[in-house]
């Protein structure tokens, strides 16, 4: 499926307590090249807070995907994206330690975050 055929995902409000470790769930299995830990990835993504379900960031809302070295992204993405194939859609639930830390200067510190990521390209 091309990136123009995909639509912004909806994340169902999670039930129960936040998980204690990284959750990786493939929604769509891609059939393109595989993302490696050393890859630069082109993704569309949506991020919401686990507790409130409120969206805090979305490349969909900005109208364009992002292109970043995986090594430069939060630890949960560094662990949760490798092995994913282009064309896939994956949900990641990141504990605070895999996102923006358990405490500190970031507004999302201490929060469990849910991302739905569409992998559009790797290099």
UniProtKB/TrEMBL annotation:
Q: Does the keyword Isomerase apply?
A: yes
Name the catalysed reactions.
[protein]-peptidylproline (omega=180) = [protein]-peptidylproline (omega=0)
Domain named PPIase FKBP-type: residues: 38-123
- Supply the Gene3D superfamilies for this chain: 3.10.50.40
Alphabetized SUPFAM superfamilies for the sequence: FKBP-like
In terms of Pfam families, this protein maps to:
FKBP_C (PF00254)
- Protein's UniProt keywords contain Nuclease: no
The protein's name in its UniProt record: Peptidyl-prolyl cis-trans isomerase
Keywords assigned by UniProt, alphabetized = Isomerase, Rotamase
* Coiled-coil region(s): none
Stated family: Belongs to the FKBP-type PPIase family.
The enzyme's E.C. designation? 5.2.1.8
Molecular function terms from GO: peptidyl-prolyl cis-trans isomerase activity
**Top enzyme category:** isomerase
Which superkingdom?
Bacteria
Instruction: Give the InterPro entries listed for this entry.
Output: PPIase_dom_sf (IPR046357), PPIase_FKBP_dom (IPR001179)
PROSITE patterns per the record?
A: FKBP_PPIASE (PS50059)
